[in-house]
Design goal:
This protein is α+β, with helices and mostly antiparallel strands. Helices cover about 15% and strands about 40% of the residues. A 5-stranded antiparallel beta sheet has the order 2-3-1-4-5, covered by helices on one side.
């Protein structure tokens, strides 16, 4: 399993994402966003999955995976 970190445009989006993952049986925790990642709301969701194939990306700013000391982007929103 890989650990992913999702950032959001709003705190409500983070809470909604967390709720949806838990309903799908995916372990998820809300945490402060690491300094190396940009976020509009300061809250991120950390979850484990074989693949980040999550369907509800309404308020997601980006999804990242950490390898060694680097954050690799696996999804970024096209919104500004």
């Amino acid at each position: 399993m890989k650990e992913y970190t999702a950032t959001f445009h709003s705190h409500f989006g983070a809470v909604k994402f967390n709720h949806n993952l838990k309903r799908m049986g995916i372990t998820c925790a809300l945490r402060p966003v690491p300094r190396a990642l940009s976020s509009s709301c300061g809250t991120c969701a950390v979850f484990e999955s074989e693949e980040w194939n999550v369907t509800n990306l309404d308020d997601v700013e980006g999804i990242y995976i950490k390898e060694k000391d680097r954050w690799l982007s696996v999804y970024e929103t096209s919104e500004n």
